[in-house]
Every structure is written in C-alpha cells, then in structure tokens.
Design goal:
Keywords: Hydrolase
Number of domains: 2
InterPro entries: Glyco_hydro_beta-prop_sf (IPR023296)
CATH class of the largest domain: Mainly Beta
CATH architecture of the largest domain: 5 Propeller
CATH topology of the largest domain: Tachylectin-2, Chain A
GO molecular function: hydrolase activity
Shape: globular
Largest sheet: 6 strands, mixed
Strand content: 35-45%
Helix content: 10-25%
Number of strands: 24
Mean pLDDT: 93
Radius of gyration: 23 Å
Number of helices: 4
CATH superfamily of the largest domain: Glycosyl hydrolase domain, family 43
Distance between the termini: 59 Å
Structural class: mainly beta
Organism: Reichenbachiella carrageenanivorans
Protein name: Glycosyl hydrolase
Low-confidence stretches: 1-25
Order of helices and strands: HHHHEEEEEEEEEEEEEEEEEEEEEEEE
Amino acid sequence: MNNLSRYIALALLIGLSSCISDSSSHGLSEEALEQLPQEVYKRNAIMNRSHLSAASIRALSNNYSEASTWYLEFRLHDLKGDLAFEPGVVRRDPSDIITVKDTMYVYYTKSLGKSHGFGTGDPSNKVFPWDKSDIWMAMSVDGWNWEELGAVIKRGNEGSFDDRSVFTPQILVHENRYILVYQTVRSPYSNRVKNQVAMAWSDHPRGPFNKLTEPILSPADDGVWDGNEDNRYNVKVQGSFDSHKVHDPTLVPYQGKYYLYYKGERMGEKLTNAGREIRWGVAIADQLEGPYTKSPYNPITNSGHQLCVWPYQGGIAGLLVSDGPEKNTIQWAPDGINFHIKSYLKWGPEAVGLDQTTDFEHSGVAALRWGVCHQVTMPDQQYIRRFEGFKPMIP
C-alpha cells in the first residue's frame, strides 16, 4: 500500500470511528435516544428520528427546546451621583447590594492613576486597574443615585499578605454581622504572584471592619514554574485549575455549612477551543472563619470569568459569563456542586452584584431582575453601572 492509500484508509477509519461514537461520546446513548417521547423530537423540529445528525443529538441531549423559564436578556444603565463615570478613577467588581433600614449599600474595588503593566523596571508602578486598590462603599435610597462613603478595607502594613492590593469584595449578612470576603495581593506584584482570599467582619454595614489575620483561601500548590523568568506561561507542571489564582470569592451559608465559591486560574494557562482556561471551585467550612477545605469535586464549572451565585430551590444557581465553553449560560446545582446548564444567553453583564432583598425563590432568574455590574471601556476607564434582566418577546 503506497503512502497516499494509507492516508486515505486512515482518514476513512477516523471518520467511521467518529460516526460510530458520536451518539455516545457527544450526547445520549442510542438506547436513551430511543426512549425519548415523540413530543421531544417535535419540539426540536426533528421529524425523522431514524436519521439523527450530530446537531440533532446535541439538541436532544442538552434539551435545547426546553421552555424559556431560565432564559432572559439584559439592559445596562448609567448610575448617578458618585458612581457615575469619572475619568482617572477605577471603580469595578461591585458586591451584592444589601439594604439596612431602607438604605442600600454596595462595596467595590477603587483605585486611581494609570496602569503600566509588567516589565517597567519599577516595582512600585501600578500594574493592573485593580492594583494598589482599596475596598470602598457607597449608599443609595433608590438604587440610581449613589453617595460614596469612603474606604472600608485598606491595604495592609508592609510585609503583610495584603500589603499590595485588596479588591473584588463580596458581602454576606449573617447572624447580625456583615462579612466581606475579598482578594489580596502581597508586594511585589509580578506575573507569577499568587493572590489569596481574605475575610473581614463588622457589626455595622459601614464598619469598622475587623480583618482576620490570615487568609482563608490560597491557590493550589501543585504547579511547577519553568525557570526564573517572570513569565506566567512557562511551566513544567500546570497543576490544578487554581494553581495560580483564586479570585472572586463569594460566601454562601448552605446545608449547615459555609460554601466559599471562587474562580480559579491555572499556572501556564493555555488557550483552549473555547478561549481561556477559567473554572469555578468551592471550598467548604463548618465555621465561618474556616478552615475552608476545597471540594474534591473541583472544578465544578467549565467556564465563568466572574462569580455570581444565589440559592434557589434547595440548590445553588449561577450566572457564567465570559471565558470557557459554557460562557453566557445560567446553571443550577441541586447540591451546590454539580452544575447543569439551564439556559444559553446572548451575553451577560460582567461582575454582577445582586439585590439581596430579591425573592430568589420566585423563579430561577428572579435574582437577575436588577443589580449592579462593571463596565470596561478602556484599561483605566472602568466604572459601575446598573443592569436589568427582562424576558424578551419573540419578534
């Protein structure tokens, strides 16, 4: 057999193997497909169930024709007052909105000045918009006009684990206390720096907040850098999904324990067929202050650049936007860990903060009726906006 014949035979074998395995490796088994009622096929506009394309198998397996209970779209609006866009000021990553005695509060990352990136030769230069940040808060009575009240969490003393930046807060009101979880970075800020997650608490929404002296979550310690160059892509071993970063902490009391959801970034991150390697994980504790133990089921999602989760029907729902093969989806985990896609969205607001007064149990997407998010127009032009979720009409 000449080389050309070998290539043709190999191509035919690969194609045949793909056809044979398609129904099992990319969807329901043949037996499961046969058991689906005819109505399911009709809803997916599949009239000949004896000849199923790969697309039809995916539609049946993923229930693409499911009713629009979990589907919605979004609008964005500018805010007024101190949270309106302000040149030279970065405000981003807003927390959920809490209401105390008819006053709304939100917490967020704030920094000033230009971001220079890495490699400037001056380690004191601001690297990212969230570098050299503190956590600020603002108040409102209507959700539109906001008054800035000042910093509530500041960077730590020199040499501490949070001396470079504190950012990306999330608020939890629990047992008459106000708990903030947030990201921290120790100086110097390099490409290979590994951030951590911290916690602070107060008896009042305006503070003062008391910091725990140690972080409550750190990246996995199972990756190995390659060489000494400050390059986050050069690795000998990538390690776990969170071997480099643990971001966007969100704390949820759940099933008598405390579930700390977070986004992981991997050492030596590579581009996949869906873009960046971004996934969520969860760490669980018996006590609020920890210790937090990472779930053996991590990672628990395949996508989601920022965290947005809420309780629903005994489980946990989440909005996943940006990065990964399941971006722009709403998912639900009946046990807080095993997430299933419930709807596919056109797009979603970034860094969502929910209104915690919402009745989340009203529907799967009630949590997304309105809230705050951030808008990035240029690297150092980042500001907080309001989003609204709505059910679209078929044109």
